[in-house]
Amino acid sequence: MAYNSLMPAFLTVDLLGLLGIVVWHLQGQQRPTARLIVQILFFASMTATLIVSGIPPHRVIAGETDGFAVYMGTAARVLWWVHLAWATIGFIRLYIVLDRRPQEARLIQDLIVAGVYLGVTLSIVGFVFGAPIGTLVATSGVVAIILGLALQNTLGDLFSGIALTLGRPFSIGDWIQLADGTEGRVVQNNWRSTQVLTPANNLVVLPNSTLAKIGLTNLTKPDESHLVILPIRITSDSRPAEVEAILKSALQTCQCIVQAPAPIIALKSIDAIAIDVELQFRVTAPAARTPARNEVIDTVHQRCATHGLSLAMPAQSYLGIAVNSSAKKASA
């Protein structure tokens, strides 16, 4: 087959490739589905044109040495590989959008996109330009080892970020609590770190390698409702059942706590001085704990005063009084 006879096919593919790039940019990043459709249509048209003309899109035909047509054929194949990469990336991004995890999967998406571009670049160098990619890959392997030794901490954050993304211990917007006491809402997760916005409105940046090793509690899953336990002590001159009923009625009037499931009054212990009680109630979100606790304390105090219940001193206070008394007697 005369190479010059293939010029119309190469010219058609070049025009389709350039037109596809222009239309692809005009779609904008906010229309991933439209972009993907454009990519598929232009890529399919370019592939069909090459195949119908008997031109393998992935390699150069032996004997392609006829002047200007060589450059047209090379440009056509480069554009074909570029559109193949874009169509593949479009499928990946559309899947992430349909999976409704565009922010959480950003790290995985970036790595896949980088892998696609690297593979396409090597394919163009090897198949289109005929360069020995084996030597290039071997050389890049040595460079990768050197960079790996120099960037151990950064690579540790990278792979920890991948593990966190795949494991899904949290998502963007979740409220988490770390073993060191740090807690807040996850606002961003990238290849190096995770950012947490604390209740004090401070932004804590946690390296992914550190976050992967530390204990973590997700307060948002299965939902954001959060249990709050408030211990109080009531003097033992009141009947426990009466104490339970009065405190339960107090919690039922609180507006800042969840009433379903109903709050629980747990009588923990009793001695000659006091009844130890735990008020167990839920709030709609971790951020609502402080206003809910304030309301409960105020309501319980008012209800106890109304019904003649007296709050008892902590057990440690009685122990301290007894020790001081013994010391005074001994000194006397």
UniProtKB/TrEMBL annotation:
<comment type="function">
    <text>Mechanosensitive channel that participates in the regulation of osmotic pressure changes within the cell, opening in response to stretch forces in the membrane lipid bilayer, without the need for other proteins. Contributes to normal resistance to hypoosmotic shock. Forms an ion channel of 1.0 nanosiemens conductance with a slight preference for anions.</text>
</comment>
<feature type="transmembrane region" description="Helical">
    <location>
        <begin position="110"/>
        <end position="129"/>
    </location>
</feature>
<dbReference type="InterPro" id="IPR016846">
    <property type="entry name" value="cNMP-bd_ion_channel"/>
</dbReference>
<comment type="similarity">
    <text>Belongs to the MscS (TC 1.A.23) family.</text>
</comment>
<dbReference type="Pfam" id="PF00924">
    <property type="entry name" value="MS_channel_2nd"/>
</dbReference>
<keyword id="KW-1003">Cell membrane</keyword>
<keyword id="KW-0406">Ion transport</keyword>
<keyword id="KW-0472">Membrane</keyword>
<feature type="transmembrane region" description="Helical">
    <location>
        <begin position="6"/>
        <end position="24"/>
    </location>
</feature>
<keyword id="KW-0812">Transmembrane</keyword>
<dbReference type="GO" id="GO:0005886">
    <property type="term" value="C:plasma membrane"/>
</dbReference>
<dbReference type="InterPro" id="IPR045275">
    <property type="entry name" value="MscS_archaea/bacteria_type"/>
</dbReference>
<dbReference type="InterPro" id="IPR023408">
    <property type="entry name" value="MscS_beta-dom_sf"/>
</dbReference>
<keyword id="KW-0813">Transport</keyword>
<feature type="transmembrane region" description="Helical">
    <location>
        <begin position="36"/>
        <end position="58"/>
    </location>
</feature>
<protein>
    <recommendedName>
        <fullName>Small-conductance mechanosensitive channel</fullName>
    </recommendedName>
</protein>
<keyword id="KW-0997">Cell inner membrane</keyword>
<keyword id="KW-1133">Transmembrane helix</keyword>
<keyword id="KW-0407">Ion channel</keyword>
<dbReference type="InterPro" id="IPR010920">
    <property type="entry name" value="LSM_dom_sf"/>
</dbReference>
<feature type="domain" description="Mechanosensitive ion channel MscS">
    <location>
        <begin position="153"/>
        <end position="221"/>
    </location>
</feature>
<dbReference type="InterPro" id="IPR011066">
    <property type="entry name" value="MscS_channel_C_sf"/>
</dbReference>
<dbReference type="InterPro" id="IPR006685">
    <property type="entry name" value="MscS_channel_2nd"/>
</dbReference>
<dbReference type="GO" id="GO:0008381">
    <property type="term" value="F:mechanosensitive monoatomic ion channel activity"/>
</dbReference>
<feature type="transmembrane region" description="Helical">
    <location>
        <begin position="78"/>
        <end position="98"/>
    </location>
</feature>
<comment type="subunit">
    <text>Homoheptamer.</text>
</comment>
